[in-house]
UniProtKB/TrEMBL annotation:
Official protein name in the record: UDP binding domain-containing protein
Keyword Hydrolase annotated: no
Keyword check for Disulfide bond: no
Family: Belongs to the UDP-glucose/GDP-mannose dehydrogenase family.
Domain UDP-glucose/GDP-mannose dehydrogenase C-terminal positions: 320-423
SMART domains: UDPG_MGDP_dh_C (SM00984)
Coiled-coil segments on the chain, per record: none
Keywords (A to Z) from UniProt: NAD, Oxidoreductase
Amino acid sequence: MSTQIEEQPEADMTGIGATYREALISGRHRAAVWGIGYIGASTVLALADNRIRTCGYDTDQLQVTRLAAGITSAAVELTDDVTVPLGDDVLVHFVAVPTERQAEPWLDALADVIGRLARATKPGRDQPPLVIIESTLTPGTTTDVLLPVIEAAGLVPDKDLLLALAPRRDWLTESDKNLRELDRVFGGVGPNSAEAAHGVLSILCRRLHRANSHVEGELVKCVENAYRHVIITMANQLTLAYPQVDLAEVLRLAATKWNVQLIHPSFGTGGYCVPLSSRYLLQGAQHHADKLSLLSAAVDTDNRMRRIVANAVAWQGPVAVFGLAYKGGIKVATLSPTIEIAARLRELGVPHSIHDPLYTPEEIERITGSPAMPDPETALATAGTALVVTDHDAFLDPRFVGLLTAARDAPLFVLDNYGLLEDTQWPAHVRYRRAGNAGWLAGAPR
């Protein structure tokens, strides 16, 4: 049975956990964070807030420079020199490297980090290094990939090198859904690893839940995100099956029942977590993937939605696409619906351009392969459709709304992924639909 472990003051903690906690709090040892993107950077900041001596490492000098600009603590060192986190004074390693590439599970970076740590570790240390993996893993990764790497270096896992999993749940745009306040699940490859991880994580997290083993701990993040993936894609399947019904309204009313979550139809999911979770589970199931038919259908529907949206607006071009980030306020374009929508518009020969306030024109063109907007006003002057893909606050600005509602010679169709602008008073020459409204995909082949 898993165990919920409430926050424990240092004085109440004993054993291995207390030893590792004290080693960091006292300053005798440092923590290293491998990979300082959004997740790794927030780990660095959380450690700094708790006055833990920390080294943040990334292969990308730009990431190092960007994070360094916001760090004032003298206890934090940021570097792209891999020898620094491998130093003898580093006891705890947080690993937050990417585990996906081109929308598929990818383990090269993770295996490289674990291999480096294993080769740098001498067996028989009184206090062996502890590795805490924060990245989301395909089920089976620890047993099939990581433990063999450790053993190949002549080490005994849970004795010479401690290994634990503690995937992140933070929602980086909402301050109350943070590393400190959200419940966190962790699991170790053995009792020593689990106890040491408990001691270290208790510095950062208020409520911890210990899994029975790394096997269960590895599955949790994928399963919780796959729950969301399935229900989101069910909303999209409903709107495809009942195209002339306002499914956004149906789902809003359904959610008034106490045990029904409110989900809206959309252009498709994006980001590192939800759309990848089903793929991780399908890959991890190996010979039993056929038992996960719901997940296979979720992946298929999610992939098709982007093309369906592009097909729906192709005859109403040119198309002005607003938003590349998969979610407002976060500069992450991984699996953003915009990427595949743009690809389909190119296939169909539909003139289009893309604008996102978080990205430069060069970044937009490199990521999507489509032209960036010279400016929204110029693009909208000739556009037949405005696709509002991302719920950026900038798209609520009265100046932007004014561009959409401005007088024009030809009608404009505004299709809104999140319903960001549904309270706007639209003039007669603008036809507005949010994803899920009746007829929002009129003309699109299913």
